[in-house]
Design a protein that fits this description.
The structure holds three protein chains of three kinds. By secondary structure, chain A is α/β, with parallel strands linked by helices. Chain A is about 40% helix and about 25% strand. In chain A, strands 6-7-8-3-9-10 form a six-stranded mixed sheet, sandwiched between helices. By secondary structure, chain B is an all-alpha fold. The two termini of chain B are about 40 Å apart. Classes of the chains: A alpha/beta, B mainly alpha, C mainly alpha. The interface between B and C is large, with 39 and 40 residues.
Amino acid sequence: MPRLDIVDLKAAYGSLTVLDGITVSVGSGKVLGLIGPSGSGKSTILRVLVGLLKPAAGRVLLDDVEVRYSNAGDVKRVRDQLAIVFQQYNLFQNMNVLDNVTIAPVKIRGRSRGEVEQDARELLAKVGLADKLKSYPDELSGGQQQRVAIARALALKPEILLLDEITAALDPELVSEVLDTIRVLASEGMTMLIVSHEMGFIREVSSKVAFMADGKVVEMGAPAQIFDAPSEERTRDFVSKILRH
Amino acid sequence: MSYTLQYGQIWPYLPFLLDGALLSLQIAFLAFCGGLFIGTLGAAGKTFGGPIVKRLINVYVVFLTNTPQLVQIYFLYFALPDVGILLSSYVAVLIGMTLNAGAYLTEIQRAGFESVRQTEMEAAETLGFSRAQQIRYVIMPHVARVLFPPLSNHYILMTLGTSMAAIFGVEELTGRAFNVNAETFRSIEVFSVTALMYIVITVAATAILAVIGRVLLRARMRII
Amino acid sequence: MLDRLIEEAPQFFSYYNVIFLGKAMLATIGLSAVGCLTGIIAGLALALVRLPTGVLWWPAKVIAVLFTELFRRIPFLVTLMLVFFAFQLTGLDLSLFVVACIAVFFIATAFLSEIIRAGFEAVHRNQWDAAAAMNFSLLETVRYVVLPQAWRIILPPAFGFFVLFIKDTALASQIGVVELTYAGRVLNNKGFSAALVFGTMLVLYFAISYPLARLGVRLEARLAKARHR
């Protein structure tokens, strides 16, 4: 049963501290929503989790086993169990949609191509792109690219899915098609960590919401608590500003 | 084989080599200045000239950039005497390098001229600048900033290119290295020290040019 | 002077001389081609060595950086002499052509590794991140993701370097490699006028270099236009 615990996590870009003691956790089948102003460190948590940024201090436990990010084997294990979807999709520009989805399972995990392709076709159908298998990323809209990126992450059969502001780079009319895909995943019991500015969506799919500012978790609780009855001044400020929009 | 490196033997020749390095710097500087002059005329001709002028400049650039500098200098040095023009080896090398540089610098500067975008010109016009003011305040600074890095780069390449003069008996750094080698037979030592000198010269020149470019022109250049 | 050229021309373009010049031209192209083809492999290796961040890679990285930075700052003539004399000491019986190829190889490796590195850097950071997050090793990332995108950026300047170096190989005549410039000097020594000999050499170099340079320009335009980068 997937479970992720982050304890007192600290990280910095050079001399700039971006995570200043983060403690959150997400249990099996649950969805943790991370909200907060830009630069609060939400995305950095996800980058640390998949080993793109080395943490300065603190602990990460995956299924109650500590992940040592200085250890190559541990990083490999955590990358096998977590999959991330990026704000800018980060699809491989040199590969068509099908190859984007199948490359890692086939070439990196060594699974059989036939089986993986079968999975990939199903996943791409699920995100509504069954007819785009041979298209290249630069032939797709942002929303389509992002759905490919979601399919690519799911093809890795991750225990936990990390979503890093996946609608932030999209034109407004394309946001819903991507969010609908995530709603389906949530209803199927996918364990997820979602960083987003889409407050309505966060409120709807999250089991728990953490409000972050300046590299710290200011307040954490059920969506209703955070959005309707925040106890911290900063949370109230942020939520009222956002909801007034 | 048992060869022991004996740098001690060429140590006394160090001032002799350094003196040659000065001549290398001189050749590179003179040829670059001459080339810059030709290149400026060439680029201006290619940008503003008539079709025949453009054609002629093009022939010059294409021919000189597609043939070896060494053979160009051979031609000047060995063939011109047939028509009564006798050049000393130093002058032949200098003319050859200047003409060669002129061709490359024409191309570099033309690209720089072209990079002055029409919009900047228009912006300057709407601001009410006169033609002279446009050139003085808009075009010149922009062109200088764009051109300085590739020109510096070519200058460094030319500094290395001066070693070719040794083939004609000019006693610049490589020429003197040949001499020291003939006297001492410590080939590896002589040429490795020579190589090191070129490295020091070009590293220093790169750094100096980058500092000048950054301070005076705010050009983006790597110092090291 | 023109009369003399016309007078000499039939003798100069004798069957034997034409064959001699043809072979010399092949040597000229071969020197640059062999040096650059081997150089691109070594250059790739040097560019790869500079990618990992681990402390253990530091020595290799330092060597790679020094190699690329230093060999781009030594005149080809001096490198030629160093390689030439170094092989004389080893007593290995290598042909002068091979010795010159090795000198070209050193310089080409340095320049091409820099070109390849710039190509790697042109591939967006997010491509590297995505691959890393999916457990691609650095080599796998380069093989499946980076090189397939970067080769369009690498190829034009790499080809440009090859064409540029064809002219620089004229210096190999100085250690006695029978390439075009050396052939010219031989014919000049045989008594043909310098204007005819070196004029012909210039034309022959031009005949090699110009079409290749044009090809390079077309290649660059074509790759720049191509999609899926």
